[in-house]
Design brief:
With about 90 residues, the chain is mainly alpha-helical. The protein is built from 3 helices and no strands.
Length: about 90
């Protein structure tokens, strides 16, 4: 997959992570979207580096989607822990 595919996957993974973790985010929609893109890259890197699951060229691979969504969830949770009260 190319960089554009990872960005699109990150946008979708960020939306899915937001759906799974509803509530107010400190960064709003744009922050959540950027977290989704970063989570897709980090999840894919962790998956290929330490879990030995090769990132395929197929956009619809379940493992690639799971890694992207998992990375987005981890980053979103971490972002809420660090900056959760900044919008009060």
């Amino acid at each position: 997959m190319g960089i554009i595919s990872w960005i699109i996957l990150g946008l979708l993974a960020g939306a899915i992570a937001k759906f799974l973790l509803p509530g107010r985010d400190p960064g709003g929609f744009i922050g959540t979207t950027l977290i989704g893109i970063a989570g897709a890259f980090i999840g894919g890197w962790i998956s290929s580096r330490w879990l030995h699951h090769s990132i395929t060229n197929d956009f619809y691979d379940k493992g690639t989607w799971a890694a992207a969504i998992g990375g987005s969830l981890v980053l979103l949770i971490g972002y809420r822990i660090l900056f959760g009260n900044s919008r009060d």
